[in-house]
């Protein structure tokens, strides 16, 4: 299955490109999970796992830290809440106090819907756009799509990609590491300098 | 495989714990009955509070089990049996309802005594009202005849208006009283004792049907491991969930909303459901934790299950807050007297206002902030703290739902310092109903495995992980 160690690897990508990724293909979630654990333990930082569906336990296998998204959402929620409180207080109590339905100008219950809505709205913005930001989206091109085999990632194949730009990357040893995880296939993905 | 290593039978003190609970229940109910003989009205309200506090847990458990079957959930299989034990106590509440039934006149006098006269004179329209008044002179008569005795801010303007006598034949109090009586007369087709007891019989018949069938399906599977039982539960869950939704809604109307028969809130059934679910999930989480800590659940329940229970506790508590606030908010905005009366009794400056505010802060704000984080939900002491707070506040909420009506029935004005009076009858009833409820639950625990061993998804549930 695995290529013989000294055999040159397939290269895919545009004419005149330079190598940017080592891409290893696997058949099962278990295989890719074990591969991820090995790459994690080797101390790589610029690498990724690609699967057709979410694989439970992959965060741990990849050694991913807790997402920072929660903090972004919480901050946005607080901004939304305090904006709503200031807005209502300024409008109803300071700028234009106006008695409606016999309620005092400063009525806490009437704050609730606006505070709720603005908190939820800004939280949702924080969640969506924060997710975009953390994932560096939108992105129009990624070297991994130069590979034809990679198309199967939306069907039944699992991949690990390691970037040449990783400080731990070494032409020979990284290839040996990936081969030790018994992939179906390994290839070098090349891309033009961006 | 490893599932067989542990038989999940109640062991140690748990096996005989039902006897202790039964003893507490007997002492509580006996004490409440003995003491309540001298003050049947107070007993009736204290008892209804205790009844509501524990019935909501059994109702919540039934909904939980049904939701698991409707969604064919695998994650919850190792914890589902604990909820099924709570659910299996539902028939016991038919027995526990007897004291409520015997005190119908004390609890629901303003419509239960109204019917005989009101119905007879209903065709005469508003002329029925003065007759209806005689049916419950203590109720309405005292309140309007002697407002100065209590001298509250809400009674005072009525008195002034009456004193000036600007309206010809009828005083302001008489007009309000006529309107109040007319509302109750109009509802007498629904709110009368005969139909009330018929509905009670229907509720309990349906609840017994649903709970005993679900429990039998689950426990029959323990030994046989036959998938057919799972299919049966899943087959009945869709209709049973509708049956439970409708019957608990109308039960909430009948038992709690009709304490103040001129009041109505169309969201009340949903509110009762939300309160049941948030109270149930908090209590459920604590019980599973306690059983696991005592080594009764082996390795069947992991932090992954607690994480999910934490999410559900958090989610349904937020749902409860949303519904409870919606109910308050629309009534507060509109400010229509017969709608506002419910909150007038609970939000006039005085002891009940403190309880209302504590519900908002301790039932919602504090648990909401506390349980928001994933790390807290996965930390058992953090989750226990949040669940315990919600559960205690659930009990407070049921007290808050029932007890202001006692002050109302005793003609103690809203906001008066004596509108909230704690009686030993509250505690005795609470221990009595709680003891009987737990005796039923713990007895079943001593007879059946503590997890649904025979469920085909059992192993999957044991190894379940949150994404």
In short:
The complex is a heterodimer of chains A (194) and B (467). Chain A is α+β, with helices and mostly antiparallel strands and 194 residues long.
Molecular structure report:
The complex is a heterodimer of chains A (194) and B (467). Chain A is an alpha+beta fold and 194 residues long. Chain A has two domains: 10-52 and 156-191, 2-Layer Sandwich (Alpha-Beta Plaits); 69-134, no CATH class. Helices cover 42% and strands 15% of the residues of chain A. Chain A is built from five helices and five strands; from the N terminus they run E-E-H-E-H-H-H-E-H-E. Chain A has helices at 29-41, 58-62, 69-95, 108-134, 171-179; strands at 10-12, 18-26, 47-50, 158-163, 185-191. Chain A is elongated. The relative contact order of chain A is 0.31. The model of chain A has no long low-confidence stretch (mean pLDDT 92). The two termini of chain B are 25 Å apart. In chain B, helix 1 runs antiparallel to helix 22 (424-447), helix 2 packs parallel to helix 22 (424-447) and helix 7 (114-120) packs antiparallel against helix 8. Chain B is mainly alpha-helical and 467 residues long. Chain B has helices at 13-36, 40-70, 77-88, 92-96, 98-102, 104-112, 114-120, 128-135, 137-145, 147-150, 155-164, 172-186, 193-224, 227-255, 268-293, 303-334, 337-347, 351-371, 374-377, 380-402, 404-409, 424-447, 458-462. Chain B has two domains: 2-110 and 194-462, no CATH class; 122-186, no CATH class. Chain B is globular and about 85 Å long. Chain B has 23 helices and no strands. Chain A binds chain B through residues 54, 56-57, 66, 70, 101-103, 109-110, 112-113, and chain B through 325, 328-329, 332-335, 373-374, 465, 467.
């Amino acid at each position: 299955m695995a290529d013989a160690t000294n055999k040159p690897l397939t290269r895919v990508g545009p004419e005149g490109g330079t190598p940017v990724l080592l891409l290893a293909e696997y058949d099962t979630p278990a295989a890719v999970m074990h591969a991820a654990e090995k790459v994690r333990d080797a101390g790589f930082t610029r690498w990724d796992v690609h699967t057709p569906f979410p694989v439970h336990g992959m965060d741990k296998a990849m050694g991913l830290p807790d997402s920072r998204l929660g903090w972004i959402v919480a901050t946005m929620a607080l901004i939304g809440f305090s904006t709503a409180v200031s807005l209502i207080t300024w409008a109803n109590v300071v700028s234009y106090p106006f008695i409606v339905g016999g309620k005092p100008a400063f009525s806490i219950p009437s704050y609730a819907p606006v505070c709720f809505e603005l908190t939820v709205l800004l939280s949702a913005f924080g969640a969506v756009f924060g997710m975009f930001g953390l994932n560096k989206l939108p992105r129009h091109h990624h070297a991994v799509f130069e590979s034809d085999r990679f198309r199967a990632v939306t069907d039944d194949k699992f991949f690990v990609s390691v970037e040449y730009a990783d400080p731990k990357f070494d032409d020979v040893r990284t290839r040996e590491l990936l081969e030790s995880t018994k992939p179906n296939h390994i290839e070098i993905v090349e891309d033009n300098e961006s | 495989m490893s599932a067989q290593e542990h038989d999940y039978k109640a062991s140690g003190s748990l096996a005989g714990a039902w006897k202790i609970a039964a003893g507490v229940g007997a002492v509580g109910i006996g004490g409440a009955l003995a003491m309540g003989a001298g003050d049947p009205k107070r007993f009736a309200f204290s008892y209804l509070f205790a009844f509501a506090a524990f019935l909501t847990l059994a109702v919540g458990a039934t909904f939980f089990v049904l939701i698991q079957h409707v969604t064919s959930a695998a994650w919850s299989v190792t914890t589902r049996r604990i909820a099924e034990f709570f659910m299996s106590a539902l028939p016991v509440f038919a027995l526990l309802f007897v004291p409520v039934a015997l005190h119908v006149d004390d609890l629901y006098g303003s419509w239960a005594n109204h019917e005989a006269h009101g119905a007879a004179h209903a065709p005469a329209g508003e002329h029925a009202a003065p007759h209806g008044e005689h049916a419950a002179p203590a109720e309405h008569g005292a309140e309007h005849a002697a407002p100065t005795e209590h001298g509250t801010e809400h009674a005072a303007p009525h008195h002034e208006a009456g004193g000036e006598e600007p309206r010809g034949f009828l005083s302001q109090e008489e007009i309000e009283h006529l309107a109040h009586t007319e509302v109750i007369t109009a509802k007498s087709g629904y709110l009368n004792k005969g139909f009330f007891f018929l509905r009670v019989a229907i509720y309990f018949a349906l609840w017994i049907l649903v709970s005993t069938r679900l429990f039998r399906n689950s426990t029959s599977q323990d030994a046989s491991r036959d998938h057919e039982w799972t299919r049966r539960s899943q087959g009945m869950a869709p209709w049973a969930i509708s049956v439970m939704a409708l019957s608990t809604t109308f039960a909430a109307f009948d038992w709690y909303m009709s304490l103040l028969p001129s009041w109505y809130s169309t969201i009340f059934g949903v509110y009762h459901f939300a309160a049941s679910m948030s109270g149930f999930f908090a209590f459920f989480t604590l019980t599973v934790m306690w059983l696991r800590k005592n080594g009764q659940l082996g390795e069947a329940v992991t932090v992954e299950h607690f994480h999910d229970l934490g999410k559900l506790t958090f989610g349904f508590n937020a749902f409860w807050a949303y519904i409870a606030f919606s109910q308050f908010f629309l009534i507060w905005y509109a400010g229509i007297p017969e709608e506002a009366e419910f909150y007038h009794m609970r939000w006039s400056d005085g002891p009940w206002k403190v309880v209302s505010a504590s519900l908002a802060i301790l039932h919602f704000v504090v648990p909401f902030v506390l349980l928001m984080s994933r790390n807290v939900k996965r930390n058992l002491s953090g989750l226990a703290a949040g669940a315990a707070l919600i559960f205690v506040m659930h009990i407070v909420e049921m007290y808050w739902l029932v007890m202001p009506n006692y002050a109302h029935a005793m003609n103690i004005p809203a906001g008066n310092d004596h509108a909230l009076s704690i009686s030993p009858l509250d505690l005795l009833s609470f221990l009595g109903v709680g003891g009987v409820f737990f005796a039923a639950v713990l007895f079943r625990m001593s007879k059946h495995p503590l997890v649904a061993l025979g469920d085909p998804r059992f192993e999957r549930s044991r190894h379940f992980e949150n994404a």
